[in-house]
Amino acid sequence: MADEDYEIRESGDEYEIVPLRPIRSLERRLDEMEKTVSSAGIPQIQSLISQIIELIKTNQRLIDEIIRADNELRNELSKLPPKIDDLVSNMKQFMEILEKAGEAETTGIGPETLKPLSDALQKLTEQNQKIIDGNQAIVQSLDSINRKLRGGTPISSIMSQYPGLKIRREG
Question: Between the CA of residue 91 and those of 39, 63, 84, 119, 136, what are the distances in Å?
Fold first, then answer.
């Protein structure tokens, strides 16, 4: 045990032996911390923190815009089924009128005369089915986006999965 390992301190009439190694170790750690703070620079750390906060705010604005667009699209899509039902109902009524007119007429209009009309109605029916299928696909995509947003998936990941998705910013 060398003299440098212990320090004798006077406290009134009493003396105390304190090991110097822990004190020197603490002094070295303090010096290292001071060097780290001075080399990294507090302004640089504050700048980095400010950039991170700004990025978080931007992401939150994007999330809010996507949620707003999602809600608007859901509202518009919810209006479509009743309109499609009305269209189908009108088409059924039209077909009934055509059938009654065909039965009432005795001149014997053949199927060749009604074929263009029947073909046109068939095309309309197919188009309506495509519209219904497309709307269902959109609703499923929106549900998927909504689940991902609520699940905490980053916006950049969601946007990369839907390359055709455009976000409209309100003025």
Answer: 78, 42, 10, 14, 22
State the Cα angle at 49 between 45 and 55, rounded to 5°.
145
What values do phi and psi take at 16, rounded to 5? Answer: -135, 140
> What distance in Å separates the CA atoms of residue 152 and residue 132, rounded to the nearest whole number?
31
User: Which residues are CB-neighbours of 65 under 8 A, at least 6 positions away?
Assistant: 167, 168, 169, 170
> What's the rounded Cα separation, in Å, for the pair 26 and 5?
15
**pLDDT in the model for residue 1:** 46
Do the Cβ atoms of 111 and 71 come closer than 8 Å?
no
- Residue in 82, 54, 69 with CA at minimum distance from that of residue 146: 69
Domain residues of the chain, as ranges?
42-104+112-161
Per-residue pLDDT, 24? 85
Q: Compute the distance between CA of residue 156 and CA of residue 131 in angstroms, rounded to an integer.
A: 30
Model pTM above 0.90 = no
CB 114 within 8 A of CB 102: yes
What lies within 8 Å, CB to CB, of 154 at 6+ separation is: 59
